[in-house]
Structure formats: structure tokens, C-alpha cells
Hints:
- By secondary structure, the chain is α+β, with helices and mostly antiparallel strands.
- It is 16% helix and 31% strand.
- It has eight helices and 21 strands.
- It has helices at 72-77, 102-107, 125-132, 154-160, 181-190, 256-259, 288-293, 302-309; strands spanning 6-12, 25-27, 30-32, 91-93, 99-101, 122-123, 135-137, 148-150, 166-167, 178-179, 195-198, 201-209, 217-219, 222-226, 229-240, 243-252, 262-270, 273-279, 282-283, 298-301, 315-326.
- Strands 2, 3, 11, 13, 14, 15, 16, 19 and 20 form a nine-stranded mixed β-sheet that branches. A five-stranded antiparallel β-sheet has the order 1-12-21-17-18.
- The radius of gyration is 25 Å and the shape is elongated.
- The model is unreliable at 1-71 and 331-336 (pLDDT under 50).
- One of its GO terms (molecular function) is zinc ion binding.
- Residues 133-193 form the SIAH-type domain.
- Residues 80-116 form the RING-type domain.
- Belongs to the SINA (Seven in absentia) family.
Amino acid sequence: MELDRIECVSTVGGEEDEDPEIRNLHHSGLHIHHPLSHHSPQFAASKPSNPIATNIGTATNIVGPAAVAPATSVHDLLECPVCTNSMYPPIHQCHNGHTLCSTCKTRVHNRCPTCRQELGDIRCLALEKVAESLELPCKYYSLGCPEIFPYYSKLKHEALCNFRPYTCPYAGSECSVVGDIPFLVSHLRDDHKVDMHTGCTFNHRYVKSNPREVENATWMLTVFHCFGQYFCLHFEAFQLGMAPVYMAFLRFMGDEADARSYSYSLEVGGNGRKLTWEGTPRSIRDSHRKVRDSHDGLIIQRNMALFFSGGDRKELKLRVTGRIWKEQQNNPDGGVCIPNLCS
Length: 343
């Protein structure tokens, strides 16, 4: 069956390019490749080395400062032999004294992974008491986190630690790459071939033939660099209940607290009508799916999108314009984005 042709034409600063750039669509797991646009010199630098291994999630035993070094051997005793993560109550043991965590107890079918004896329901209360007395460094100590926590507070902190790596924000395929922001920007550019633009205003045209057959579809991600930060613009089609819709939203490449310092607007229209959206970009700490499912962005019903497209309503042609600005609460003139000065 012939695939639908989906294009995205992108211009920056509100002006159209003479030669429309065609963007990639990841549609139903298929990759349709089109020529890529020229990248800004801003992104021409060589790819920095990634200070974070892509399997960082498994590196739980980070040795901390010298002050906590004596606890390291005890920490090893609290490492589950199956998953290698730290064990938390209930800690189970077999008749021979071998221990493992409660999660892995079901994985090994109630058999000790060390001696193969039946585990039963024996708790290792002594080891649980030892765990309560420990203070250990955050597992992201090697990435810059200086914090030390009681054993049972450590997990809660690590789930929210500002030094934990970011997940790749690309939504067109499953990508398990993690790293800091400079590394992910290079990864998006070099590995996912996303469009990179400098500036705080944009004017995009999204095109799809045969829009009556709406299925989950994601247009190529665009990354913007302005105010010394990076932002990801998403646009896609999906089913909202029984109704097919199109949605555009912006994500901030950084933590949520920093994301709240910025705002953005999106506008789409045609035939004398328009829809506008204004909001705060979501951090890439929130997954693409979480943002989409929360409907936190500009949502366009298919009938309205076809009305905006004009013509015989047989092809989707949506023009989405937008602007990013920085909130300056102490400046009465703040929040104004001046073209060519906001980067």
C-alpha cells in the first residue's frame, strides 16, 4: 500500500524559504527520508564526548567522599546478587544466610540464586537494621552531586536529583540514550538528523497528503537555540478518543525549575480564522508521551485543520508560527523577544 506523503516546510523568523525544506516523518514505525535542511553554524561544532555512559542506570555503586568510604564494604553487603541494586526491606535470606531483595525473590521462583535452596519467608532483620544506620553518597556523585543521605532517603533523592542524566527527547522512535544537554543536542543532530535553528521565532508549514486517514504520526523534531538554552518543538497527529487531532507543543531541554523562566506562543489559522496557544514549555524530564497525553499544547481538530488548509480539503497544509520569550518579573518591559537579539 502506498504510504502517505508527509512534509514539513520550516522557516525561521517569519519568512518563507524559496526552496521548502522537507522534513522526516516517522509513521507507523516506517522511516520516510527526505533531504535535510542546512544546519546553522551554531551547531557545526564537533560532537562532544559524553561524560555519561548510556547504561548509567545500572551504575548504582558510586564511591563517595573519603568520609563515607568505610561504609562502602557494608554497602556491598546490601547489594542484591540478582539485580545488583541496593536492597530495601523486606530483605530476604535463605537457610544458608544468602540474601536478595523482595523484587528478585519472585524472579528466581523462590530459589536462592547462590545455593539453590528454597528461600521460604525468612527476613534478614540484622541487615535491615544495618541499612538504617548508613549514610551514603548519591549515586550521581561522579556527575557532580555532593549530597549524602541516610540509606532509606537515598532512593527518593536520586529519583529527583538535578545531576541525574537526561533522556533523549526524540519521539519518533524508542531511544535509550542518556546524557547531559550538550551531548544530547549533538546526538539529536548527528544521530536523529533533526533540524537545528537559532532564534526565538519560527514559521513552520506542515503538509500531509490524504489527511482523512489519520493515524499516529510524528513529524520531524525541531531544536531551537535561544537565550543560551535549547527547546524542542513537537508536531504530530493522533487519535483523541474517536476524534483525530493535530497537536504542537514545546519542551525545554533542562529541568522544570528553569523551564518556568520561559514562555512560548503558537498560532495556526487560515480563511480569516486562527487558533492561538500560550504556555510554559515542559521540561524534557517529562516524557514526550506524558506531555502529549496531558494535552498541554495547541490542539487542532481535523475538521478545523482542513478548514485552515483551504482548497479542496484533500491535503493538509498547516502553517504554525511561534515565539519563545524569557519571563523577567522585575522588568516591566520583560518578556519581549527582539529578533536577532534573543540568541
